[in-house]
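Structure request: Class I SAM-dependent methyltransferase, Corynebacterium mendelii.
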Amino acid sequence: MADHSHNMKARFSTTGPIGVATRGTTNTNRLRKADRWMIHHPDIRRLLLTAPRPVAVDVGYGASHTTTCEWAARLRTIRADIAVTGLEIHPDRVLQPRDGVTFALGGFELAGLRPQLVRAFNVLRQYDVDQVYRAWETVTSNMDRGGLFVEGTCDEIGRRATWILLDRTGPVSLSLCWDPHDVDVPSRIAERLPKILIHLNTPGNRIHRVLSMMDDAWQVAAPLAPFGPRVRWREALRILHDRGLEFTAQRRVLRDNQITLPWHEVAPL
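Returned structure:
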């Protein structure tokens, strides 16, 4: 069993920023997989296109503004007037505006903003699992009506990433995404599962069943290995569909191997 004694406890109160300062590490393009997914997601696009004054908030951007500014640039391919704010609970990390992005002191309470879209990456993985639902509820209750929240985790340079899409009622879907040349079997993505699921990759849990199905389909698709891991994964997805796994069909050719599953396929029992 992994030692989680180093995990942090957020302070949930009615005043001031909610959360604790995390390690804050980041790298250029670390969150590109989730960003690409967001700008092509039909519900996110519709939400941002129809809002009178769309606002997006990045919670816990860390010690560098890089990934927040990258996110803003990608979101503005949908709509140029999206207002993007990065929030940090550590006062020393709050920056002056740059690249069309504002920065402010804040946490899960969203600093009084009512955004349509919220992103929090590599934040909750550093907390105790028993605080995840409280953090989710705090964020979603402070979003604009109809708002969406993307909460996830990834490795240090963004080769492997997972994220959960939530609305004000709770989790909607789980996405798993990885560099096709970075893993030998799909279940390697398990080391980057969101906090709410990472400790449940054991027999009897839904996420373990899904990862096992993915590995098995990957093995069945082995005859296509000479054509590369992307072609092999597309065949694995066809096999998974035939075996009854519910997931969102890909509508475009992707550079990454990816699958998005409805929450009921992976939800904790």
